[in-house]
């Protein structure tokens, strides 16, 4: 990894301009994975002067700035009390407190990491991301399409009368998840999200729909879990086989639904 | 590039490259308690405080630490000695390579959590790996240091 130049712009317009001046110019996040890359960065752009480290509650939403850290999420009173606390739950087991003091929401969401726990939990809450150039778009669409040379400013989560659950399976504490699942229910609308498949988090649309119209009996929950495992794609990597992930998916989805309705 | 760091309450002007990490900068300037282990954010050996928060110095670009207060174990020697005494008392120091990072995290935890439970202690220390001790001696020593039953 090499970095030729470093800038810390005073405003987003300047940061965006620098980002697009050279193909290898890169926005810095928490830098926790920077060392593991073989990138040759011409200019590294530090956003720390732009006031993007915040978690704020408005009348109808919670806004999380791009530079809010995992630790900020973990200890946030706002996020512990809203959305059944799934966002703090999704980050609190990631590596150690020193790591969580560095890793940022913006880098995780913008990079669309497949292994991310946070992206799975966020996606269940129907959020939007705000990009400097592309503007406000649903996170589900952003995770699908990504963005080219843009800067993520914040994530906006609408407040809702909602119950949610986050589940995961790991080989050992602090390791990446073999699979993670987030389930949320707002009135009669359900959302089932599965991540670390090891592909990026995705909504199980058919299963979510099937659960929304059901009476939530044991067989309805089992059917939703089976549908989730059938409709999503799973893969094999050093942590788990495709078949194991698919089997685990059914179990975690059932447990998450049970927790939401309990 | 020239940066200013407040290392252990002493202002220092340092010349660093744009892709230099804080652990290297600190070691290059004599702060040899800062160990480099995995350099992949996994082991916690390189833990220092940046503006009083524990961070992995192997993954902080030195240019991004510009203007910040950095604390290494050289800056908290009395407190560190107290923690180390309890670790030694439990035979938990072993090779000692991980101890500076562990002690910095324990001291941060003491400031962060009031009367932590054993479970909270284990959770807070999840990012500090030790390949010798098996952790139980460390946990006993830390609980005694914190006065936790």
Biggest chain pair interface: A-B, 30 and 32 residues
General form of chain A:
globular
Rg for CA atoms of chain B: 15 Å
Count of discrete domains of chain B: 2
Structural class of chain A: alpha+beta
- Structural category of chain B is alpha+beta
Distance between the termini of chain A: 49 Å
So what's the CATH class of the largest domain in chain B?
Alpha Beta
Helix content of chain A: 25-40%
CATH architecture verdict of the largest domain in chain A = 2-Layer Sandwich
The assigned CATH architecture of the largest domain in chain B is: Roll
In the CATH hierarchy, what is the superfamily of the largest domain in chain B? Answer: Beta-grasp domain
Q: Into how many domains do the coordinates of chain A divide?
A: 3
Report the β-strand fraction of chain B as a percent range.
Answer: 15-25%
The geometry of chain B reads as elongated
The CATH topology assignment of the largest domain in chain B is Ubiquitin-like (UB roll)
What is the mean pLDDT of chain A? Answer: 96
What is the gyration radius of chain A calculated from CA atoms? Answer: 18 Å
Number of helices of chain A: 11
Number of strands of chain A: 12
Low-confidence stretches of chain A: none
Question: Would you mind describing this structure in some detail?
Answer:
The complex is a heterodimer of chains A (262) and B (149). Chain A has 262 residues and is an alpha+beta fold. Chain A has three domains: 2-46, no CATH class; 55-158, Uridine Diphospho-n-acetylenolpyruvylglucosamine Reductase, domain 3; 163-261, CO dehydrogenase flavoprotein, C-terminal domain (Enolase-like, domain 1), CATH 3.30.390. Chain A is 35% helix and 26% strand. Chain A has a five-stranded antiparallel β-sheet. Chain B folds into two domains: 2-74, Ubiquitin-like (UB roll) (Roll); 76-146, Orthogonal Bundle (DNA polymerase, domain 1), CATH 1.10.150. Chain B has helices at residues 22-28, 77-89, 99-112, 118-124, 136-146, and strands at residues 2-7, 10-15, 47-50, 53-56, 69-71. The mean pLDDT of chain B is 95. At the A-B interface, strand 1, strand 3 and helix 5 of A face strand 4 and helix 3 of B.
């Amino acid at each position: 990894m090499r970095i030729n130049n470093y800038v810390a712009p005073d405003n987003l317009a300047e940061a965006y301009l620098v980002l697009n001046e050279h193909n290898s110019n890169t926005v810095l996040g928490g830098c926790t994975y920077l060392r593991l890359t073989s990138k040759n960065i011409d200019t590294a752009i530090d956003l720390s002067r732009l006031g993007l480290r915040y978690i704020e509650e408005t009348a109808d939403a919670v806004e999380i700035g791009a530079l809010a850290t995992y630790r900020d999420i973990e200890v946030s009173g706002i996020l512990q009390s809203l959305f059944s606390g799934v966002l703090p739950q999704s980050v609190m087991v990631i590596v150690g407190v020193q790591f969580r003091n560095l890793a940022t929401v913006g880098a995780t969401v913008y990079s669309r990491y497949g292994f991310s726990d946070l992206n799975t939990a966020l996606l269940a809450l129907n959020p939007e991301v705000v990009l400097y150039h592309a503007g406000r778009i649903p996170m589900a669409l952003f995770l699908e399409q990504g963005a080219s040379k843009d800067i993520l400013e914040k994530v906006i989560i609408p407040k809702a009368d909602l119950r949610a659950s986050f589940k995961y399976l790991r080989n050992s504490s602090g390791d990446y998840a073999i699979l993670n699942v987030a389930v949320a229910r707002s009135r009669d609308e359900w959302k089932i999200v599965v991540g670390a498949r090891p592909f990026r988090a995705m909504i199980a649309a058919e299963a979510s729909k099937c659960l929304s119209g059901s009476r939530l009996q044991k067989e309805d929950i089992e059917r939703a879990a089976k549908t989730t495992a059938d409709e999503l794609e799973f893969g094999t990597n050093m942590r788990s086989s495709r078949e194991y992930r698919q089997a685990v998916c059914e179990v975690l989805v059932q447990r998450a639904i049970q927790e939401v309705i309990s | 590039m020239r940066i200013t760091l407040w290392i252990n309450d002493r202002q220092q002007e340092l010349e660093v490259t744009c892709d230099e990490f804080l652990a290297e900068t600190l070691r290059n300037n004599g702060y040899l308690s800062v160990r480099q282990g995995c350099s992949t954010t996994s082991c916690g050996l390189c833990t220092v405080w940046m503006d009083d928060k524990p961070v992995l110095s192997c993954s902080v670009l030195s240019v991004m630490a510009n203007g910040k207060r950095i604390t290494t174990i050289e800056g908290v020697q009395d407190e560190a000695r107290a923690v180390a005494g309890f670790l030694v008392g439990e035979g938990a120091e072993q090779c000692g390579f991980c101890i500076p990072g562990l002690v910095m995290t324990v001291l941060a935890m003491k400031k962060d959590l009031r009367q932590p439970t054993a479970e909270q202690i284990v959770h807070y220390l999840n990012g500090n790996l030790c390949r010798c001790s098996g952790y139980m001696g460390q946990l006993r020593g830390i609980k005694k240091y914190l006065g936790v039953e």
